[in-house]
Amino acid sequence: MVRILSPNSQPIYSSSSSSSLSWSAPTPTPMTTSTSMTETVNGSNLFNISGYSLLKGIGVGKCVASNTFTAGGYSWEIYFYPDGKNEQDNATYVSLFIVLASEGTDVRALFELKLLDQSGKERHKVHNQFDSGPYTIRSLGSMWGYSHFFKRTDLETSDYLKDDCLKVYFRVGVVRSYTEGPEIYSIAVPPSNVGQNLGHLFETGKGTDVNFEVDGETFAAYSEGHRSGPSQWDNEGGSKSRGRRSSWRDNGGGSGSRGTRLSRRRTSMLSRRRTQGPSTPSNEDENNQLGQFLAEQRKLLFGVFFFFLFLFLFFCFFVFCLKASDSLNSLDQA
Fold first, then answer.
1. For every residue of 190-258, which 3-state class applies, written as one string?
2. 47 and which of 66, 134, 200, 324 could share a cystine (Cβ 3.0–4.6 Å)?
3. Strands 135-137 and 210-214: what pairing?
4. Is residue 282 part of a domain?
5. Nearest-angstrom CA–CA distance, 59 and 149
6. Where do the DSSP E strands lie in 51-89?
7. CA-to-CA distance for 144 and 136, rounded, in angstroms?
């Protein structure tokens, strides 16, 4: 039985029920992260075109092709048209293209085309699309380049043609987008020490403003109107408190409130401990021990029963053998 005493020694709250205060740590919250990445995968090829003078006159729309090279997981080839690609140009211009030579759909790529200056002056003819943005190659056989790449008469008298040879450099950068992740991070929540702190407060009695009498023994606690009392007494050396300290005992004195649910749980737990004792086993443990004891007794009884049954059967067999022996002796004498 737990009693909370008012100043006039009259109980204002009593309880004989038991309750427990439990707390479980929150489950760590998983957090995922992902990153969208866009990059270019580059590849290049140097295409040497020898015997340029022999290629003239092969016909409009006909070309010579480079070996296949790879960039960004796709195959590419360089096409050079000595007499141009289109009929309406009448072989006035040479044409130069790069072609997708493998299966692909909507391949986004950047291109750099460079006709090399072979005089050593490094005045190359450059068409660079890396600065302007990617071009979309729709499917196999689609191409990017220039129909009017260079006027034939100007090309044949330039430093780009040397020893009847042209050198063409092509660089391809295939644009690829992908997402990295997700990577799972776990936010570790430290274990709570609320129970330890509350136990320390109850042991020291700092900031208490109400006392409980449990079976003749008095315990200090904190009332509902004095929630911040313990922290203020710890921080300011016990000089200040929001609430008013009081002691509820049998002989009265002081004032206070009815107490919080935490105080009620505390007193109920103390009452249960005093009633049960420090080492009283639970009902479940008692049932388990009783069951084990009954099982052992049952085994012992079965053992004794079978032992005596064996002795009885052995005795019967012995008597039977004696009677059978007597019968045989009687027959022999007859």
1. CCCCHHHHHHHHHHHCCCCCEEEEECCEEEEECCHHHCCHHHHHHHCCCCCCCCCCCCCCCCCCCCCCC
2. 66
3. unpaired
4. no
5. 17
6. 64-65, 69-71, 74-81
7. 9
pTM higher than the cut 0.70: no
Let me know: does 81 contact 143? Beta carbons within 8 Å: no
pLDDT at 116 over 80: yes
The pLDDT score that the predictor gives to residue 252 is 41
Cβ atoms of 110 and 134 closer than 8 Å: yes
**Residue 85 within a domain:** yes
Distance (Å, whole) CA 333 – CA 289:
67
In a domain, 186, yes or no: no
In this structure, the answer to whether residues 122 and 223 fall within a common structural domain is no
Which residue, 128, 147, 181, sits at the end of a domain?
Answer: 181
Asked which of 181, 211, 239 is the last residue of a domain, the reply is 181
Residues 75 and 199 both lie in one domain: no
Domain extent, residue 119, equals 34-181
Verify that 99 and 205 share a domain, yes or no: no
- As a whole number of angstroms, the distance between CA 18 and CA 271 comes to 8
- Model confidence over 232-285: pLDDT tens digits? 444 444 444 444 444 444 444 444 444 445 455 555 555 555 555 444 455 677
Q: Which two tokens stand for residue 134?
A: 């990617």
